[in-house]
């Protein structure tokens, strides 16, 4: 694609027909709310296939993809090694209901990449991973309270749904009906990056906090970076008060480096959750940590957790094939350079167009916020002009670039993206931001 091919004409007749049928049989026409495009309007995408950095709809439109299945597709779509591994395993069976050597192999790769994790348990979704980690923390400590941060998203288990980010932020849902008040009261919310607020909660509830759960880099209120000292401060406070630190790396695990980002910030969690990339696009997640904690999980201990499809052989093969690609020299440096090039172009356009906006970015993660304020917590993120983001999203989509259909999500660069893709996206951003500036 050359930068002169940005276009405002897209045929979507067949996609419209399919979504109309989807609305008859699926709730809202989707199986995850953000896919309905309620925050950005217009007709939701229907995708027929993906290849490398591109998605293709049933109408033949090609889209340059910066959603990457919400970060899972680090290698891009239909990577040959991953596809071959899945196809090979499918010939051998898709589910056995007993342990396979594949589970051992993927676990070894993860533990080698994250040495402070001594044991791991596979599950089928990030929600299962965080839900199980919290149950384990409560079982290990004998305490009930959880401290979490406003705007962070840890899946849709009941304990995590108050003042959460991601889809709840997108739809403007502050508290979710169906969560018993007695359970909701066990979750204490404080602003992200506010260490003093965490310390105050520990003082108010001595000996009652089981765990603090945190995204090391928040990516579900848009990308929000931790202030210097914030994560080490959480580690110090949890140790002081004998609570567990749960670091949710469902997004950041293997995204910025080959393993965990925790060492970048000088911390090691008691429990860590992983997902997305470790499954290569198939449903798999994991939680793991110190052996003395993990050994409390059944069958060794009394904290129960199970799953029919946990450790599914197809997902294990996809995960192994994916992680085997991540040791390639310069892989992470290259995608970070691509992301930096795009972010720099957008920042330059913001300055030249005199827009009230800025970009938060790290590695291959980024979010463009339409606000003049620094975004370092959920309150600041919510000040963003979502109408302008909608304009930006729709303009980029018409030019063939697919971004997250929500102000409160991240964009992702993959291994499949090229220099010319980045320039194409940068030019689309220049045109889109100019249209916003003059509107």
The CATH architecture of the largest domain is: 3-Layer(aba) Sandwich
Mean pLDDT: 94
C-alpha geometry: globular
The major beta sheet can be summarized as:
7 strands, mixed
The first-to-last residue Cα distance is: 28 Å
CATH class of the largest domain: Alpha Beta
Question: From the helix content, strand content and strand pairing, which structural class follows?
Answer: alpha/beta
What does this structure look like?
Helices cover 36% and strands 13% of the residues. Helix 2 runs antiparallel to helix 10, helix 3 (101-113) packs parallel to helix 10 and helix 11 (331-353) packs parallel to helix 14 (419-438). A 7-stranded mixed β-sheet has the order 4-10-9-8-7-5-6, with helices on both faces. Strands 1-2-3-13 form a 4-stranded mixed β-sheet. Strands 11-12-14 form a 3-stranded antiparallel β-sheet, covered by helices on one side. The protein is α/β, with parallel strands linked by helices and 439 residues long. It is built from 14 helices and 14 strands. It has 2 domains: 3-65 and 331-438, Aspartate Aminotransferase, domain 1 (Alpha-Beta Complex); 80-325, Aspartate Aminotransferase, domain 2 (3-Layer(aba) Sandwich). Residues 1-6 have low confidence and may be disordered.
